[in-house]
Specification:
Helix content is 38%, strand content 17%. By secondary structure, it is of the alpha/beta class. It has one domain: NAD(P)-binding Rossmann-like Domain (Rossmann fold, 3-Layer(aba) Sandwich), CATH 3.40.50. Strands 3-2-1-4-5-6-11 form a seven-stranded parallel beta sheet, sandwiched between helices. Strands 7-10 form a two-stranded parallel sheet. The chain has a two-stranded parallel ribbon with strand order 8-13. The longest helix has 22 residues, at 84-105. The protein is globular, with a radius of gyration of 18 Å. 46% of the residues are buried. Bound molecules: nicotinamide-adenine-dinucleotide (NAD) and uridine-5'-diphosphate.
Length: 309
């Protein structure tokens, strides 16, 4: 198949492009390089089936494709809050442009949605049926509401125009090719530990997240696109749940060194807990479940960051 990956030079996008090429597909990676970088796809550049296009998803684009994966959007809180209006435009206009393309080409189209659609959840763990608890006017809203609106657009195009959609809600995922300055917690802690700097826990560190290693997630993406049982929304992630204090301590144990744990203020609207209910994914993805433990995944990610910092 010929497959378009928006956000293809980012952390998840570059790992996905590599996987799709391995599976024998032609891949077009479209990216404006806001948080992604050519370094992530440098090893794919010479591949006969790979093409990189520098373009912004806000502006329309035309390709003849069989599938579209829409991943373009900054994902780390400091990056999506850097220019919040642009973040909303990226989610909303990017979705409209991908859906318009899918409508014309009849391509199956995948939306990288997020656990952030559940906001600061009052139901735990979060099933897909939960509508969420999102502040519509806060600092995180540009991302949360942009992604929620994108889901709305996907389902309206599906109902109105029979567009063949797949909507996945990704929970915190980490691994090689995250940017050293990404700002998300796993890369921050590893980079700080490797540099011997203080490990910055925001708040008291009792808030939880569930961390999925990138390879497990990408396997879920590919299986989700291949199945026809559900269009989603479908949670994808690792249900193992950790406090930020536990993550800091495990990172320090694995990296070694002399970093101290320090506390900084908790950002506004920071969700207190998050864990996916993956019952649906386990049912429809042919026996899929995350295989890589946090300790093993952190080890692989630390090995990557050792080559970067
Ligand atoms: P990332 O920041 O590494 O990747 C995002 C990519 O999109 C970058 O390459 C960036 O340059 C590109 N991009 C941003 N705005 C663009 C625009 N207007 N036009 C074209 N390209 C643009 O982050 P990631 O972790 O790889 O996230 C990929 C997708 O997955 C995002 O949509 C994100 O919301 C979603 N997601 C990721 C996670 C996670 O834990 N990694 C969790 C939930 C959802
Ligand atoms: N966090 C932290 N120290 C950091 C970066 C993040 O304690 O250096 C916390 C953050 O406040 C949140 C959790 O780690 O509670 C996950 O943050 P991240 O930005 O990775 O993702 P998200 O909040 O979007 O899940």
């Amino acid at each position: 198949m010929r497959i378009l990956v928006t956000g293809g030079a980012g952390f998840l996008g570059s790992n996905l492009c590599e996987r799709l090429l391995k599976d024998g597909h032609e891949v077009v990676a479209l990216d404006n390089l806001f948080t992604g970088r050519k370094l992530n796809i440098a090893h794919l550049m010479g591949h006969a089936n790979f093409e990189f296009v520098r373009h912004d998803v806000i502006d329309p684009f035309k390709y003849e494709v069989d599938q579209i994966y829409n991943l373009a959007c900054p994902a780390s809180p400091p990056h999506y809050q850097y220019n919040p209006i642009k973040t909303i435009k990226t989610s909303v206009m990017g979705a409209i442009n991908c859906l318009g393309l899918a409508k014309r080409t009849k391509a199956r189209v995948f939306q990288a949605s997020t656990s952030e659609v559940y906001g600061d959840p009052q139901i735990h763990p979060q099933p897909e049926s939960y509508w969420g608890h999102v502040n519509p006017i806060g600092k995180r809203s540009c991302y949360d509401e942009g992604k929620r609106c994108a889901e709305t657009l996907f389902f309206d195009y599906h109902r109105e125009n029979k567009v063949d959609i797949r909507v996945i809600r990704i929970f915190n995922t980490y691994g090689p090719r995250m940017h050293e300055a990404d700002g998300r917690v796993v890369s921050n802690f590893i980079v700080q530990a490797l540099r011997g700097q203080d490990i910055t826990i925001y708040g008291d560190g009792s808030q939880t997240r569930s961390f999925c290693y990138v390879d497990d997630l990408i396997e879920g993406f590919v299986r989700f696109m291949a199945q026809t049982e559900t269009v989603g929304p479908m949670n994808c992630g690792n249900p193992g749940e950790f406090t930020m204090r536990e993550l800091a301590e495990l990172t320090l144990k694995l990296v070694g060194g002399k970093s101290k744990i320090v506390h900084q203020p908790l950002p506004a609207d920071d969700p207190k807990q998050r864990r996916p209910d993956i019952t649906l994914a386990q049912k429809v993805l042919g026996g899929w479940e995350p295989k890589i433990s946090l300790e093993e995944g952190l080890g692989r990610t630390i090995a990557y960051f050792k080559t970067r910092v």
